[in-house]
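Journal club side-thread
Mid-discussion, someone asked how the predicted structure for our own chain would compare to the paper's figures. Pasting it here so we can look after the session.
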Amino acid sequence: MKRHAFEPARLITGLTALGVGGAYACEAGGVVDLPGALPVLAVPAGLCLAGATAAVWSVVRRQRSGSSAPRD
């Protein structure tokens, strides 16, 4: 199986989607009564966090690849 590069922004996006989906499932099952603004606020907040993480991760990757390259 081919290995994939680790992408923390996708991890954060997926966890946000799972969290919102879990909140909807709990709401539908009657387990908890959540405010209606939760998904409206959680999804954009998760996407902004993922975007910031992607920006930081790209800088880290660029510096890692630049420092490990052999110098002539």
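Post-session note: The CA atoms of residues 32 and 39 lie 14 Å apart.
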